[in-house]
Write a structure and sequence with these properties.
The protein has a domain of about 170 residues: CDP-alcohol phosphotransferase transmembrane (TM) domain (Four Helix Bundle (Hemerythrin (Met), subunit A), Up-down Bundle). About 70% of the residues lie in helices and about 0% in strands. The chain contains ten helices and two strands. It is globular.
């Protein structure tokens, strides 16, 4: 059997999927913090598989499909099971339905992305990416879980609305910035975006993850705010363009 360069990115994609399974196993054992960290690790492998595909010049339709299958396990099923087991199971059938939205609408988000690969604006995603949704959920748990095994008070109350909001934004038309590639060219092209993401990464490292949820919350809210602003501004601009100037009447003297 001939081994091609495509094996390299596929290996990282498989590791992403495997981390998703390990997260589910940890959640079933009641180890919610460990389960959250396995989703973080899955995110690292998810970033590396795209990088390896570009370095080895081995991007393919197969890579796109297996990447999406891995993402639905690691960033859909794993966080959905995690939020259900840590608190939403207390809501009975409604808790099961709400937690499943992270997986179901995340799967729809991935399918829509795959069929829109050609011709889309590479500076933006349409809808919140499923890894961002998963990271928002696990950072919420890492920030507010008491003793790493349950949520209390307002943190427990807000978990269900958080899951619903994130799920709906994934299939919305709200635009979110893509991650900048690590290169001098990208720095020159999008300096503000590059510096913002670099600053966010360093802040997460220096705060030992404590800033993660607040950064993801700001990212989600920024996209929503920009979307609402554009809805307000664009119709006004369109109306202004449709109003044709009326020429003053001329009189022959």
């Amino acid at each position: 059997m001939r081994i091609t360069r495509a094996v390299v990115p596929t290996l990282f994609t498989v590791l992403n999927m495997f981390c998703g399974l390990l997260s589910i196993v940890q959640t079933s054992d009641g180890k919610f913090i460990e389960a959250s960290y396995f989703i973080v690790l899955a995110g690292l492998f998810d970033a590396l598989d795209g990088m390896m595909a570009r370095l080895t010049k081995s991007s393919s339709q197969f890579g796109v499909e297996i990447d999406s299958l891995s993402d639905i396990v690691s960033f859909g099923a794993a966080p959905a099971f995690l939020v259900y087991k840590i608190h939403l199971y207390q809501m009975g059938e409604w808790g099961l339905i709400i937690s499943s939205l992270l997986m179901i609408l995340g799967g729809i988000r991935l399918a829509r992305f795959n069929v829109q690969l050609v011709g889309f604006d590479k500076n933006y995603f349409t809808g919140l990416p499923i890894p961002s949704s998963a990271f928002a959920v696990i950072s919420y748990i890492l920030t507010f879980a008491v003793d790493g095994n349950h949520l209390e008070g307002m943190a427990a109350t807000m978990l269900a609305p958080l899951c619903v909001i994130l799920s709906l934004i994934m299939v919305s038309k709200v635009k979110y910035d893509t991650l900048p590639k690590v290169s001098v060219k990208e720095l020159k092209k999008h300096p503000v975006k590059f510096i913002f993401f670099l600053f966010s990464f360093l802040l997460i490292i220096f705060t030992k993850g404590k800033a993660m949820f607040y950064l993801f919350a700001a990212f989600v809210l920024f996209g929503l705010t920009r979307y609402v602003f554009q809805l307000i501004v664009k119709p006004s601009a369109k109306e202004s363009a449709e109003i044709e100037p009326v020429e003053a009447p001329s009189y022959d003297i």
